[in-house]
Prior knowledge:
This protein has helices at residues 20-35, 67-73, 109-125, 190-194, 200-215, 225-234, and strands at 9-17, 41-47, 51-54, 76-79, 86-89, 93-99, 132-134, 137-142, 145-155, 158-166, 186-187, 219-223. It is of the alpha/beta class. It has a single domain, classed as 2-Layer Sandwich (BirA Bifunctional Protein, domain 2), CATH 3.30.930. Strands 1, 2, 6, 7, 8, 9, 10, 11 and 12 form a 9-stranded mixed β-sheet that branches. A 3-stranded mixed β-sheet has the order 4-3-5, with no helix packed on it. A hairpin with a 2-residue loop joins strand 8 and strand 9. Helix 3 (109-125) packs across helix 5. The chain is globular, with a radius of gyration of 17 Å.
Amino acid sequence: MANQSTYRNLNYCDLGLIDYKQAWDLQYDTFAKRLKDETEDTLFLLQHPHTYTLGKVADKENLLSNDEQLKELGINVYEIDRGGDITYHGPGQIVGYPILKLSNWKEDTHAYLRGLEEVIIQTCAEYGLKTERNPNYTGVWIENRKIAAIGIKVSRWVTMHGFAFNVNTDLSYFGGIIPCGIKDKDVTSLQRELVREIDLDEVKLKLVSNFKKFFGYSEIKTMHKENFLQTVLQS
C-alpha cells in the first residue's frame, strides 16, 4: 500500500505554445528534481506547434506522410519514450504533462491512467458531453470517436508525458497518421462535438480543478511561465 500524505501541493504552469523539444527537456528537468524531492508535483498545460510523436512501441508504418509532405505542412516528428503508438499535437489541443510522485498517491500505473481519463471525462461532462472509456484502448471516447489520447512514462514511481485533449484542434492533421495505430476509429474535438469554438483558458481552468479534485491536492500553486523557465535555467 502506497503512502498517502494528507496535505499535498500541486505546482501548475501554463506554458502556452511551446516547441515539443523544449517542453520535453523541461519535463526531464522537473522529473529529475521530483525524484530528489527538490520540487513538488507539477502539472504543465500547453500547446505544441504541429508535431507527430511516436511512442516506444509505435509502428512507423502508422506515419503516412512522407518527408516532403511533412516539410510542406511544417510538421516535426519525434520518437519519444512514452508508451503508446503515434499521435498528433498542434494548436488548439491542450496537452497536459503531470510530473507526479505516485508514491504519495498510489503506486498503481493503471489507476493513474484511469485517473487521467477521469479528469477529462469530468471536464467534458461540464460541457454536457457524455464520454466513456474503451476497454480495448486507453484514452477518452465519444462512441467510436477519440477526444483525448493518453501516453505516459513512469520511472521510480515518478510520471512523465500525459494527455492530449482535442479542443479546437484542426483534425485534418490526423489524416497524416493512423492515430494510436487504430484503423477503425475516428478522432473528434470539443469544437466538433459542440459545433462552436471553445475558450481554451476556460477549459484549462476546468482541467486543473478536476485534476486537483481527483488526485486529492490541497492547494494549487500557479507559476508564471517566465518565472518558472528562469528558475529552471538558473538551477
